[in-house]
Amino acid sequence: MHREERTMTTIYLIRHAEAEGNVFRRIHGQYDSCVTPNGRRQIAALAQRFAGIPVDAVYASDLKRTCLTATAIYRQKGLPLHRDARFREVGLGPWEDTPFGELERRYPAQLHAFSHDSYHWYVEGAECFLQYAHRFLAGLDDVVRRHEGQSIAIFSHGMVLRGALIELFFPGQDEGVSHSENTAVTELMLTSVGAKAVRAMRSHIRQNAPPPRKDAGMRMSGSAVPNRDFMRCGTAMPTKEMGPANAVTQADRTLESKISAVRNARRWTPMFCAYTSPSW
Fold first, then answer.
1. Which of 17, 60, 192, 252 could join 70 in a cystine, given CB atoms 3.0 to 4.6 angstroms apart?
2. Are 119 and 259 in contact (CB under 8 A)?
C-alpha cells in the first residue's frame, strides 16, 4: 500500500527581547523602539540556546527590536536576515507610544479588550485583530512554501504572535493562548499533509528572573480545525468609551472574504502541546 511521504518543516516563532516600551510602560506597536541592556542579555542567552539547533533561514519584522534580537541566530550561523513587514506588531494608530497609565485613565474598557477580548478591540486608525493576525499568517504561509522541509526562525512581536496562534488553534476564543514573554519561543512542526507538534517556552534570560507564573503558557492541546466558521472583525463605531459591552460592530465583508480564502487555501494544520521550562 502506497504511503504519502511527509515533509517536515520546523518553525521557531520568537518574540523580540525586552525593549524600551516594556520597561517604561509605553504601548509600542509599530513604533520603532530600541532594545534595553537587559534585552541584550536575553539575546545572548537566546544565542547560547540555539547554538546547537539547526536553522536554515531567519526572518524578522523590519523593526529594530526584532532585527537586533534576530542576531542571536543569523550571525552565529552565517545566514542572511530576511526582513518582512508582515511580521510587524499590530499597528496601534493614535495609541502608539502612549503611556499605559494614560490609556488606563482615558480608555479602561478599550485597554482591557486589547489584552483580554482582542476580537472586539478597536481604535480608529489602528489594525483590528483579524487584520494583524492574518497579515502575519499570510507571511507565515509564504515562508513555509519557500522553505518546505527546512527549519526557520521568525522574530516577531507579542500581540501579533498571540493573534496568529489564536487563529490557528482557537478561532474566536481569545483566552486560548496567553501572552508570551520577551524572547519566548514557540516551536511549530508542520507537515504538508498534517501536523506533528508544537511546543513553547518562556524567556531565555534566567539571571534575576522571577519564578514562572502558575498560569503562564498555553494550557490546552489539540489541533487547529480547518475552515471553521469565520469570526468577523468588529469595526466599532466611535463612542466615548469603547469596549465589548457597548461597541457597535459592522461586518467587514471584504476582509471576511479575503481571510476565509486564505484559511481555505492553507495546506497545513498544526498541533501543539504546552509551554515547557527554560531548560527545554
1. 60
2. no
Strands (DSSP E) contained in the chain are: 8-15, 26-27, 57-60, 81-83, 98-99, 151-156, 185-191, 194-201, 222-223, 271-272, 275-276
Neighbours of 231 (CB within 10 A): 17
Is 120 within 8 Å of 235 (Cβ atoms)?
Answer: no
Residue among 209, 205, 168, 199 nearest 69 (CA): 205
All cell numbers assigned to 75: 550571525
Query: Residue 277 has which C-alpha cell?
Result: 521550562
In this structure, are strands 98-99 and 26-27 parallel, antiparallel, or unpaired? antiparallel
Among candidates 29, 18, 7, 193, which has minimal Cα distance to 95? 29
The residues that bridge with 81 in the sheet, in sequence order, are: 58
Tell me how far apart the terminal alpha carbons of the chain are, to the nearest angstrom: 38
242: nearest Cα among 119, 111, 63 = 111
Residue pair 20/99 in contact (Cβ under 8 Å)? The answer is: no
Taking the C-alpha atoms of residue 69 and residue 87, their distance in angstroms, rounded to an integer, is 14
Which residues contact residue 105 at a Cβ distance below 8 angstroms, ignoring those fewer than 6 apart? none
Q: How far is CA 23 from the centre of its chain?
A: 20
Strand-pairing partners, residue 198, are 188
- Strand partners of residue 15: 156
What cell does 95 get? 495609541
Q: What are the grid coordinates assigned to 255, written together?
A: 476582509
pLDDT tens for 204-223 read 554 334 333 333 333 323 33
Residue found by looking up cell 489584552 in the block:
115
Rg (CA), the chain: 18
- pTM (whole model) above 0.85: no
Residue 183's Cα: distance from chain center in Å?
12
Backbone φ and ψ of 272, nearest 5°? -150, 165
